[in-house]
Amino acid sequence: MLIRPDNRAANQLRAISFTPGIAPHAAGSVLAAYGDTRVICAATLEEKVPTWMKQQCVKGGWLTAEYSLLPYSTLDRKQRDIVKGRLDGRTVEIQRLIGRALRAVLDLSKLDGFTLWVDCDVLQADGGTRTASISGAYVAAQLAVKKLMAAGKIKESPFTDSVGAISVGVYQDAPVLDLNYLEDKDASVDANIVMTGSGRFVEVQSAGEEATFDAAQLQTMIGLAHEGLQTIFRLQKEAIG
């Protein structure tokens, strides 16, 4: 019998919220909460594009993301990357994932000459920091676009769809939705699903932890993710207004 650490049902999300306006100097910002995981996501617009776009004569604009775990976000203090003099592999992987997820629902030609920066800083980590970052980054970017359109800096929204993410996994031999830290560290299978509001996949990351999983389990996990993301898309829409 499945007993989750917080007594949730297998298909039950943690308490999820998106609180706008957490960083007043950003064009758009939100505090994304997935249970006890808290991430500040902030978007700012820069009136230039990366050097490689100019060198390769690539038209349009760009979106890029940065991600960090703040030193006090975990049980043991995490050393800042700047102290080590390099980004760790996990940080690089996650910020690339956030960037890919948002660019999947952007028409970059409508950001011509601009770079939209999205910064995701984890205040508290309890599992699902990358999924909370993606969902929060989308809200922050949408809020930024609304503000920039109102100011006349961009003519129309570059967004073609919404995007969100959620974790799933196999815990105590059962597929479950939205793993917290205790579940994540003991899960035999860990997966992160990134999906658009229209139901198309951006990314499916899944791996067995000294274990394997079959097609039926994968389909069940994807079904759980799809179900949970409908709630997340609704909450994102309410936060954006």
Cα end-to-end separation: 41 Å
Shape annotation: globular
Radius of gyration: 18 Å
Series of H and E elements: EEEHEHHEHEEHEEH
Give, in spatial order, the strands making up the sheet with the most strands.
1-2-3-5-4
How many helices does DSSP assign? Answer: 6
- Could you say what the CATH topology is called? Ribosomal Protein S5, domain 2
- Overall number of structural domains: 1
**Residue windows where pLDDT falls under 50 for at least 5 positions:** none
Q: In total, how many beta strands?
A: 9
> Class, according to the CATH hierarchy?
Alpha Beta
- Strand content is 25-35%
Query: What's the helical proportion of residues?
Result: 25-40%
CATH architecture: 2-Layer Sandwich
Largest sheet: 5 strands, mixed
Label the structural class.
alpha+beta
CATH superfamily: GHMP Kinase, N-terminal domain
Mean pLDDT: 93
